[in-house]
Hints:
Shape of chain A: elongated
Shape of chain B: globular
Number of strands of chain B: 3
Oligomer: heterodimer
Largest sheet of chain B: 3 strands, mixed
Structural class of chain B: mainly alpha
Radius of gyration of chain B: 20 Å
Order of helices and strands of chain A: HEEEEEEEHHHHEE
Distance between the termini of chain B: 67 Å
Mean pLDDT of chain A: 78
Largest sheet of chain A: 5 strands, antiparallel
Largest interface: A-B, 77 and 111 residues
Distance between the termini of chain A: 82 Å
Amino acid sequence: MRLPGFKSVQAVVIISSTLLCAGVAMASPAHVRVAGSLQSQPAPKAAAAGAVKAGAAVDIVERKGFWVHVRSGALNGWLKLDRLSFDSGGSEIAALASGRTGSNNVVSASGGRGLDASDLASAQPDIASVSALARVAVSEVAAEKFAKSGGLKTRRIGYLQASGSGKRRP
Amino acid sequence: MKKRKLFVPLLMAHLIAVPSLAHAQLPDLDSLGKSAPGKDNGLGNILGQLKDLTGGQSAKDEARSGEAIAARVFGAAAPLRNSAVQSYVNLVGRNLARQVERKDVQWRFAILDTPSVNAMAFPGGIVVVTRGLYARLANEDELAAVLAHEIAHVNRRHQWKVIQQQKLVALAGDAVTRGDPGRSAILVADLGTKLIARGLDKSAEFEADRDGMVIAARAGYDSSALISVMEKLKALSGDADTALLFSTHPSPQDRIAALTAAASAEVEAAAVPSAAAARIRAAH
């Protein structure tokens, strides 16, 4: 009588710890690289939602543009991407970033010959393929029409400097 | 005569000693010319030839050299035989190119039929994306992010400047090739193909990331789409198909951090999916 009961308790413990591990693995751990405030929204002028110290471990909930939604204990808010360092490969963020995952499946990714340094070194020139590029090239007018048909609206944005100042460059 | 013999190796040593081959570190040609001991020392002629290349004739030379380099690459991986996809990529790419300053470029875009994950730009405006990378792009915003990075390389002549500098070094010690246009063209194609295998300076890659992000945002695309692409590359780290890309570029994590740190308020405001995002599927 006792033995089966013990077994079922043990099974529950094993199942729950497995679920717990899976939960931890999916939470995308990262560390805070630069201390500072958390924002309540993914915007620089949003209200503060507490502060995080450098080195603090956080879990990533999702990414939106240049911002990451993180949780750390009771803290819950948004940080700029460059304030974090990622513990694992970071591939989990891609899965968490809503609507940005997957592939287009228009053409297969695998099969055929590779293109690495040794392939380049031994390649014989294929001039005909270069000439053929002109056949599918399009005019600026056609491209502009295509952009408009897709609902794309141009923006006036200046080039950027390397630093984090966000200053414009001529 | 003694001066002349001595100076050419000195110039070569100077050029070789330049720690980086990115355009930002290129020696200023005018100041080099001024420091030369006398104008008729042979060196002046070489500098003169190089200056000609950066003048009116340069766009044609650049295009011809780019085609020679592209021919070598196509010998290893030819353009995909799918005119619908090729036309689509040309429309997206050509529209992005409207957002850059250079107008002396004949833009041509292609998907290369190889599982390798990479994208490349050749001097003069040929831009390629491999099938391995293209198939992993989720939407037109991500395709635009990749193409805009390559367009930025052409716009700033990153590859062309390195090739010209290396050509100057090679020709300084090789009078035979210097006097033979056919040999010079082969030399340039060799240098360009080796540059693809070796990669640009990291600062040039970071610059193309920042410029590309701006170019894509100017055209109406999601400015953060390059970050999505970087996340995909990161997940492919260690995959044989990404070997060349990883050996010639900074790590995806460093690129994400640099892009985020550089983003201005107007770039951040453009971090929203574009109206055309879903269109990539229409390329069947």
